[in-house]
Amino acid sequence: MSNEQELKIVFTGPMGAGKTTAIRSISDIPPVSTEVDNTDRAACDKDSTTVALDYGQLALEDGTAVRLYGTPGQERFSFMWEILCAGAIGVVLLIDGSTPTALEDLRSYAQVFHRINPDQPFVIGVGRTSSEDTGLLDRYAQSLAASGIVAPVFDVDVRKREDVLLLIETLLCILETQVPGTEHAVH
Amino acid sequence: MVARRIALVKPASAADEKVTHALQLFDSILWAFQGTSSRTSWTVVAPDAADVIVVHEADPDEQIAAWRLQGKLIVEFAVAEPTSAALVYPFRAAQALALLERLDTQLQAQGEPLPPKASAADPWSFVETLRTIREVQNSEAWLVARDGKVASLWLRADGGMYAAEHATVQAIRRGTMQLATLNLQKSPFPEGGPTPRAGTELSWFAAYHASAALAPWLNAATRYRVTRWPNFGLIRPLPSHIRVAAALASMPARPDEIAARANVSPEEAIRTLNALAAANVVLGVEAEVVPVKKAPTPAVQPRGGFTSFLRNMRKHLGLGT
Amino acid sequence: MQSTNPRSTAAQEQLAVFVAANPDVTLALVTSSDGFEVAAHPALPVAQRIAAMSSSLQALSEAIAREAGRGRSRNLIIETDNGTILVLGIPNTTPRLSLAVIASGSEVLGRLLWATRNCCVALENNLKSQLK
Q: Does any domain span residue B305?
């Protein structure tokens, strides 16, 4: 339920995809994290993992606060996804393109969020892809489109602020062309 | 109908039999071309009577120079790399025909100082070439695009990647690069050449800048929608491009409806639609009533209204308009 | 993902004792900080989900205590319509473990908290000695 000032953007995706990093790239405040030691190195070889949420913030000129939330990645924390996405102005899905399950992950996360809220602006950033196969993400997008999901799928490096901004700008453009009142009547 | 005359000159001395094959190939292309153009016809004649002379690059320079002095246009071909010749055997019919078209234009302008670029060149020829290449799917070989003798850019033979000096890349993105008159030939990618970039960036901006008019394969009365988003992570488009893509992803629109829907100028709208079409991501829709992506409920209600929220957000993040 | 290592067996036994001594407790479980169930009594199917949620709650309560500058979070107490949920960190465990206890309404909060804290101490001692 969004009240007048409650504006939030959610970053989600499997573990290791860069959600925490992405928020850190653009947040005005040092992000609050709920990272703990990762005991399941077989699933993902990372020292730490987010178990509740990451929290960052953008403080706009007129005093509006845009909250940035990062969800935990693992499926056992999927209850957090629905909690955090409720009322969000958009969701950014981040995928690690170097894992063998990248396409699978992309499809399953996209389908979960599409089910939770089919009309919510949704963009996908894929990191660590090989620079040789420049048609890879087009094929991912085609795969999603075949399931009825038309969402941007972009090559990004979330350590770079400008790449995270590309994803945010795309969310804003989707929002802008969706909201009634900002679009003119079509004859 | 303009009648052009062309001579195919056999080699002066005994040469590689490939040279003969190349001439035969050209001859068959000319024969197949007959009757297919309403503008120009090409007839094979003797060199003295010809407007255009096709000759192997190894032929004696003095004879070629003499023909040039007579105002004839010379087309050199080669049968092996490396070369700066316009055609390299085996060449494709499309290449030879594109060449004839350019020659036709040049001949039209005969009498005026020849412009370095043929101003009547088809603005869509380069975009078409890129689309043809993409179907070839040969990711091993590279092509070089030359403007006369100068190499402007390298293109992987499947169109997946391209490379050019920084200044050239900027020119391509800004639309100040003359792409229509570039010649593409096989060439190995040079050691220490510029870092390759995604080919989609080249085809996007080539299509965007090609023309302010609707592309020949689009229809002003059709509603178009975006079937999938192009990979903007590789293309790095202008913000207006993203808005047009978003508008067409959420609801189909006719070319003249896009400007209002996406909050861009009419010319921006057409150019971006052209680029989206060249990227193969638009489809014309038949039905008048198409499901529209609705805004999520409850709708976003930021303080000061939605438009000012967008403005503040973009300003805060340093995003362009 | 309940492991069958000696650590979880020891914890299991401890929880069984705790639940037997506190009849209003409906579920007690030990979880890793990253949401895996280490031991649970009784072994209910819902324990896995509760394990993940309690680790989130533990992490959030630590984060809020930090942000508020009030030291470290010790107990998280959730009072519901007809029950109580407690989440306590188990000190000196590596990796960090938590104890989550779910009790029905009739349990007096003070008594439950006291019993749960004792269970925590017992677990800490038990698990410390299980470390290689």
A: no
